[in-house]
């Protein structure tokens, strides 16, 4: 293995830059050259490659986003698109690839390797959703929950001033991990997640009782993928049926994807980046580098791409006791 390529794909997440840096430095440590692929699979098809050396990844460990850009590529979903990508990688002398992305990116890598087994791929789970099997945390998740938490804390300040009811929507189309953690840590009065069916009449009753007893601000944290249909839809169904004089909806949206990665995400990026390079050097392929109980592990793509939407019973209990109004 003389030359590897690294790229970021799918939804961006904080910590991707720290991870690119770790891949590059680990490769250099092992006398391996690195090419960065710009804009995901789309850039791979176009041969949009840039050599990365130590200087090229200087000063990026603390930067959000990804210096390589990310993209979703419809063309890579076709055999013709993947053939073009293969030709570009071969022409550039790439012996192995590190893909930093979510389950879609790993599925793309799997299909590619079935057609072009000459070039092995190893994956790093870069997504804020924490919804991949085989790793305790995905890259960017810790930063995202802390961003959401900071926002919830600020909303609490203003909610208390007027004793308002707030519906705060956080990211999570299929998984409620961001909602659950930021909701527990932010002292939310209720947390609604896609994994648990939402009982609107019960919620209305509980908000009413809470208002009666405490006359206090009330924050409902809702994951975007909850069956209530997100914060705006939930507010429509609830706000006229509860005694709060005023309610507000805040959708945190893309601020959860940005920002300086936390210490935990930077350390994860370093462990995973080094793990990916070492796996390629050991002739491994088709695996995601995860971290379980602080140890770096290798998880086959076919396992890691299954959506992990199992909420820990312990956190469920905490949410039930502390957030059931
Ligand atoms: P996130 O979880 O943040 O959305 P992701 O990696 O799951 O990230 P996707 O858009 O699902 O994001 O996938 C990224 C890219 O991977 C797609 O745009 C496409 O080019 C490629 N890809 C996804 N699934 C396949 C597939 N089954 N076959 C070939 N390529 C795929």
Automatic annotation (TrEMBL):
Binding residue positions for substrate: 127-129, 164, 171-173, 224, 248, 254-257
Q: Where is the Phosphofructokinase domain?
A: 3-280
Q: Where in the cell is it found?
A: Cytoplasm
Q: Where is the signal peptide?
A: none
Q: Which residues bind ADP?
A: 21-25, 156, 187-189, 213, 215-217
List of catalytic residues = 129 (proton acceptor)
Question: Quick one: which residues bind ATP?
Answer: 11, 72-73, 102-105
Xref: Pfam families: PFK
Q: Which GO terms describe its biological process?
A: canonical glycolysis; fructose 1,6-bisphosphate metabolic process; fructose 6-phosphate metabolic process
Q: In which pathway does it act?
A: Carbohydrate degradation; glycolysis; D-glyceraldehyde 3-phosphate and glycerone phosphate from D-glucose: step 3/4
Q: Quick one: which residues bind Mg(2+)?
A: 103
EC supergroup of this enzyme: transferase
Q: Which cellular component, as a GO term, is one annotated location?
A: 6-phosphofructokinase complex
GO function terms (MF aspect): 6-phosphofructokinase activity; AMP binding; ATP binding; fructose-6-phosphate binding; identical protein binding; metal ion binding; monosaccharide binding
Q: Which InterPro entries match?
A: ATP_PFK, ATP_PFK_prok-type, PFKA_ATP_prok, Phosphofructokinase_CS, Phosphofructokinase_dom, PKF_sf
The protein's UniProt keywords, in alphabetical order, are: Allosteric enzyme, ATP-binding, Cytoplasm, Glycolysis, Kinase, Magnesium, Metal-binding, Nucleotide-binding, Transferase
Q: Does the keyword ATP-binding apply?
A: yes
Q: Which cofactor does it need?
A: Mg(2+)
What does the record give as EC number? 2.7.1.11
Cited function: Catalyzes the phosphorylation of D-fructose 6-phosphate to fructose 1,6-bisphosphate by ATP, the first committing step of glycolysis.
Subunit structure, briefly?
Homotetramer.
The name this protein carries in UniProt is ATP-dependent 6-phosphofructokinase
Organism the protein comes from = Saprospira grandis (strain Lewin)
């Amino acid at each position: 293995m003389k030359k590897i390529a690294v790229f970021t794909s799918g939804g961006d997440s904080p910590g991707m830059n720290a991870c690119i840096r770790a891949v590059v430095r680990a490769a250099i440590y092992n006398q391996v050259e690195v090419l960065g692929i710009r804009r995901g699979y789309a850039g791979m098809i176009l041969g949009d490659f840039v050599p990365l050396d130590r200087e090229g990844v200087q000063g990026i460990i603390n930067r959000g986003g990804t210096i390589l850009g990310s993209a979703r590529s419809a063309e890579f979903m076709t055999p013709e698109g993947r053939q073009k990508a293969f030709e570009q990688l071969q022409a550039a002398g790439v012996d192995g690839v590190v893909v930093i992305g979510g389950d879609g990116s790993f599925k793309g890598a799997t299909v590619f390797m079935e057609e072009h087994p000459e070039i092995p791929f190893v994956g790093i789970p870069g997504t804020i959703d924490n919804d991949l099997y085989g790793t305790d945390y995905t890259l960017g998740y810790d930063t995202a929950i802390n961003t959401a938490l900071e926002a919830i804390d600020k909303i609490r300040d203003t909610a208390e001033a007027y004793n308002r009811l707030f519906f705060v929507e956080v990211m999570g189309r299929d998984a409620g991990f961001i909602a659950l953690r930021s909701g527990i840590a932010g002292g939310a009065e209720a947390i609604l997640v896609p994994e648990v069916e939402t009982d609107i009449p019960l919620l209305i009753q509980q908000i009413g009782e809470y208002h009666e007893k405490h006359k206090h601000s009330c924050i409902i944290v809702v994951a975007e993928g909850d069956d209530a249909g997100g914060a705006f839809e939930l507010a429509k169904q609830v706000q006229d049926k509860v005694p709060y004089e005023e309610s507000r909806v805040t959708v945190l949206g893309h601020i959860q994807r940005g920002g300086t990665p936390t210490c935990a995400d930077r350390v994860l990026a370093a462990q995973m980046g080094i793990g990916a390079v070492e796996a390629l050097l050991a002739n491994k392929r088709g695996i995601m580098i995860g971290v379980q109980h602080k140890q770096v592990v290798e998880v086959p793509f076919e396992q890691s791409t299954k959506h992990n939407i199992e909420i820990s019973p312990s956190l469920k209990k905490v949410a039930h006791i502390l957030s059931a109004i």
